[in-house]
Amino acid sequence: MPVKIRLSRHGRKKNPYYHIVVADSRAPRDGRYIERIGSYNPLTNPATIELNFDRALDWLQKGAQPTDTCRAILSYKGVLYKNHLLIGVKKGAITMEQAEAKFDTWLKEKEGKIKAKIDFVENSNAKRNNERLEAEAKVREARAQAVAKKRAAEAEKEAKKSSENSAQNAVEADADTEAGSSEE
Question: At 23, which CATH number?
Answer without folding.
Answer: 3.30.1320.10
